[in-house]
User: Fold these one by one.
Assistant:
Number 1:
Amino acid sequence: MLEQRYRWKNRQLRMHVSVLDGTTAPTILLKNALYLNQTFKKWMRANIWIYEDRIVYVGENLPANTENCEIIDCTEQILVPGYIEPHAHPFQLYNPHTLAAYASQFGTTTLINDNMALALNLPKREAFSLLRDFRSIPSTMFWWCRFDSQTEILYEEETFSHSNIKSWLEHDAVLQGGELTGWPKLLNGDDMMLHWIQEAKRMRKKIEGHFPGASEKTLAKMMLLGADCDHEAMTGEEIYNRLMQGYMVSLRYSSIRPDLPDILDDMKRLGIDAYDRLIFNTDGATSTFYEQGITDAMIRIAIEKDVPVIDAYNMASVNIARYYGIDHLLGNIATGRVANINFLSSVENPTPVSVLAKGKWVKRNGMKVEEAYPSVDWSQYGLKPMELDWELTMDDLQFSMPFGIKMENSVITKPYSIAIDVSGDELTTDHDECFFTLIDRKGKWRINTMLKGFANNLSALASSFSNTGDIILIGKNKQDMLLAFNRMKELDGGIVLVEGGEVVCELQLPLAGIMSNLPMEELMVQEKRLLEELKNRGYSFSDPIYSLLFFSTTHLPYIRITQQGMYDVMNKTVLFPSIMR
């Protein structure tokens, strides 16, 4: 346990000190570097000594011993600390490893990750083994501890039991509880959730809120109950209200909510010019959104919107580290910190030319260091290809419910009265209503309804990617829906489009049916193709991946399709239960 509990062993600490004594040479020397000093909030020149994964000195002196030391003249470069992503959902078709490898190319070397997919799909032992082994990659990986499933699942009390939550909260790699998508339950008297919050606070860990549209009074109540930060502000006024109530405010720029430019304009209008309680996050954007960058893209937008340059960098680094109490390790270039350093061509361009992560080059002179992130054997952690040992039949595709689900945008769904004849095996293409089925991945239950607004010319889609890992079927042709399901089954998980008895697009998800094992760049190509095919068939919203993910999530209004059945979010009731097969 000592290996996991302490960042460096005693022997390593003695070695670090010996570098200053001259008995040991640094492994890397960055000479005459212009770097961001966040103590003085200035750009300063210094020599930076690195031994393996740690900065052992920053100042005017040069080491006495440079034997086998890599010496780099940094006169023409600008150095900033590696960026931190405090709100990653590393399961949006990509996986935590491929996200970390890709993010490192844009200077994001630390990620604080949602644990939802691990909690829902892996036994605790395997999940913790994965967390342990992620310590060996160049990126620094921290985690959250969810308190609820974000939907209405069967046997939730087993997955989110007190013993499981306590074990996650006690884990060294877990920095916070939340995000609190189930906060209405907390306000309504859920004392177990309140106890978990109290436990997190006792351990000096943070609580991440999820309070879209919350009133000033609600924000104040949640602060009293233990919330520390919220990432759901969508206007300058909402930023102001959260700051007034003492929150750390996480500014978002994501595929589902690309709000940052407008928010920064609002802040300027309102005269908000204090940035120490502000941080950046990308809230689990889909892979194609990340083509433009990760945290570096947010810094660039902030600079373009006249945020002071140093504050823009601080919101991506030291502000986050100070908030989580990890600034003794991360978020700044100073003696004793982990050697996460971005090398920039100019102050105005936050996308790095070179990147050091834990003292290892992951990007050098604009080129990716290919061997920096070795492949992962996911099977040893229980993330194997999905195996379906049951058959889907036409009897499963019977639709008789009096109302269905209408999409208002990518993720908001309302009930609507079904007025068309749904008794046949095929629907016409002169309207935007489709058959919609959620079916247990173990084949034990199903629920059928109609979906309006998703597409008007979609023959069939089958997806093992969903919030709970259950199977989603959408389409106008039942025979093609069966074919799409069977092809998805052959792939051992994925997203499949079928039309006229032929597969027109497929995206394989071999990791438990929810994640790809492809590098992000290759996944982007497949995801773009899927989006293009869906748009050609009438999908008119911004993000089909989030549509699939959020059909069953009950933290959003107004009606959801869940393991328990059709669920009324506002009244917290199951309107029609799921049917056992």
Number 2:
Amino acid sequence: MNIQQAFATALGFQQSGQAGEAARLYGEIVAADPQFAPAVNNLGLLRANDGRDAEAVALFRRALSLSPDSLNGWNNMGALLTRLGRTEEAVRAYRASVRLKPDQPAALNEMGIQLERLKRADEACDAFARAATLAPGDAEIANNHGAMLRMAHRLDEAAARFRRAIALNPHYAGAYSNLGSTVKDKGAFWEALQAFRRATRLDPDFAGAHWNESLVRLLLGDFVQGWRGYEWRWKHGRLPSPQRSFVQPRWDGSPLQGRRLLVYWEQGFGDVLQFVRYLPLLARTAGGTAEGQPVYLECQRALLPVLRRLPGTIAVETGGPLPDFDVQIPVLSLPALFGTRLETVPARVPYLTAEPELAARWGERLKGLDGLKVGIVWAGSPTHGNDKNRSIGLAPFARLAAIPGVSLVSIQKGPTEGQAADPPGGFPLLNLSPDIKDFADTAAIMAGLDLVVCVDTSVAHLAGALGVPVWVLVPFAPDWRWMLDRDDSPWYPTMRLFRQDRPGSWDDAIDRLEQALRSRASG
């Protein structure tokens, strides 16, 4: 039997599921003719199917060195590298395939998925657009293209692509959910609710759609259904903190009767700062006495110095040894257990306090400032999913520095804090950022300020928890906690909100903030 006949026989074995026989015969062919690329490639496929990944990669590389124009070889290599999580290499493999034959919608789609994972959104969007042109009837490609357009904040185009995906596949729950998120970004909240509900009717276990629906309900003030749906966050799997696994049961809100409760952190600094307000309430009621018993709080290291001062609470750092406890609950599940409605939000402030000696030391740094002492924060964490919409940079604050009777103080932390060393146009700014070590320092500085002006980030929550006057710049499609059509917050009595009047433009909000600050300074 010659090489070609042997290859045909091996291919027949492979196609009929007789992988062992096929592998044996491919091996004999490769031994007889090491330059026969199709047998090398197919042996690589069988090794990949067996989980022998290193052998498979080596065989695919060998096959491609023998036949560099093999579309099948490059696509096989791309698929294996994708499975192995070697995303950059997978993109190179798919790109090589597409260079050889540009009209491959499947390869372009796979390349787009990998580019998205690498957060190369523009390249991914281009790949999906090319795939969609080649395969206008493919719902998955239309949906993927829409997702990239949404990331680029091209919301109308994104919504059109999701609607196209739904028209092609009316049972496509993912496209309904993506459409809901997109029209939510545009401010069409009732339409978003309808889309999320359609997604969950099609797929009752679609955690992402359930969770996104809960966020819209909370945004609209429907706390009853909102908190209930918010529990889907753990199944959604995209939180910045994992769900914890403890031997001790989760607390169901029943009387503790001496049981020791651990409340543990989740998500971001701002989330924890906002919802630790419930811990003093728990401490007063948990033991059934006037004094109560302490509640244990596990929190992030950066928050520990300020949360140690939380009444009725013993705070410990995450990652270290935990105290003995009997029941546990994540901190953002407390509002549901308390049955919190809009009219029953526990909004008494301050529930956090600055350390007096630290506040006195920072106060010395602020003594030389004239007029209103205004702390400013212009950016949140760049890893936050909505950071592009909420962070504004330092330059817009130059207008505030020009107001007579206003002294600006930088309390910005993070990658952009260096901007304070050289403010745009050289406007006057006391730069405290380099010397701030943690939230306890920030809280102590706030004790000596008249006002904090910031974007939607953890500093807003810290100021609100301390009872410090704070003005927050809020994006057009806001985070659920800022709700809609109001310039105050039910969570923080000392907070005032300045909302965008249209997506992407801060001009009107900053105009209004500047006018308000001029009025306050002149008063």
